[in-house]
Design goal:
Number of helices: 7
Strand content: 15-25%
Shape: globular
Structural class: alpha+beta
Number of strands: 14
Radius of gyration: 18 Å
């Protein structure tokens, strides 16, 4: 291994250890509020809920992570964006609680999502779902893991319906276009956790609505990629992170054997704005 690559691999491994420990503590902080009637208010014109737990987790993570890596940039759903992150090669990309609506409603399917993006590409990523006692992690230097165990890419069974989390009209259209049954799976409010379900084989694919942001997908994108899956645009392009604009168009995520054909099929159907 060239010296520069070895140094990068060592850095990513150390960074993964850092964000994994921070995410576990963040999960413990969130659990103190979970099903305990946290204060809730709304942003984005009253369309997006935020809770006291989101803010407590965000504050802890910002202090802990930037305290350990002061030369890294910062991008978080619950911190006002600052343009100086664009001047940093390495950036923390954080969703303190992905799936805030589920969290507020007492559902288990929410997670803390932390990624480190280097030169526009995720190089370390962690999802911690404390209410489910689940952790997911990966770095560019190693394999993806769930609860500490190495994850292996799941083969898509051509004889079984394709398990796809997407709006009903799209699922119905895809069945005809792909020439196989497509089964619509129940909606999971946490996008990051939904992508983790593709990575661990509980879903074959999912549609990602327009306007998903870097913090929704960066960590899960890396975890999925390390088991051979992909997140891509409807033009079958990969995603760059830490740009001036942090939102994305409609995306498709799926097991490796489905891509990029699934993205092209969805594009041909002029996919409507999906559930997020």
């Amino acid at each position: 291994m060239p010296a520069d690559d070895a140094r990068d691999a060592a850095t990513w491994t150390a960074d993964l250890d850092l964000i994994f420990g921070a995410a576990e503590e963040a999960g413990r902080i969130a659990m103190r509020h979970f099903r305990n009637a946290p204060d809730v208010w709304y942003k984005n014109g009253g369309t997006s809920p935020v809770s006291a737990a989101d803010m407590a987790v965000d504050s802890f993570l910002k202090d802990a992570l930037l305290g350990a890596r002061p030369d890294y940039g910062w991008l978080s759903e619950e911190t006002v964006d600052a343009a100086d992150r664009l001047t940093h090669r390495n950036v923390f990309v954080v969703d303190p609680i992905d799936g805030t609506r589920a969290f507020i409603e007492g559902m288990d399917t929410w997670c803390v999502s932390i990624a480190i993006v280097s030169d526009g590409t995720p190089v370390a990523g962690v999802l911690v779902a404390p209410a489910l006692a689940e952790t997911y992690s990966a770095s560019q230097a190693g394999q993806a893991r769930k609860n500490g165990q190495v994850m292996v890419g799941t083969a898509v069974d051509a004889g079984q319906p394709l398990r796809f989390a997407a709006p009903k009209p799209l699922v119905e259209g895809l069945s005809e276009r792909l020439g196989r049954n497509v089964s619509r799976m129940p909606h999971i409010p946490s996008l990051a956790y939904r992508l983790a379900m593709v990575a661990d084989g509980r879903l074959d694919a999912t549609l990602v609505s327009a306007k998903a942001r870097d913090w929704d997908i960066a960590a899960a994108d890396l975890i999925l990629s390390r088991v051979g899956g992909q997140v891509m645009t409807l033009s079958a392009e990969t995603i760059a992170y830490n740009r001036a604009e942090t939102d994305h168009g409609i995306l498709v995520a799926g097991q490796a054997a489905l891509m990029p054909g699934l993205a092209h099929a969805v594009a041909a159907l002029h996919a409507p704005a999906a559930e997020h």
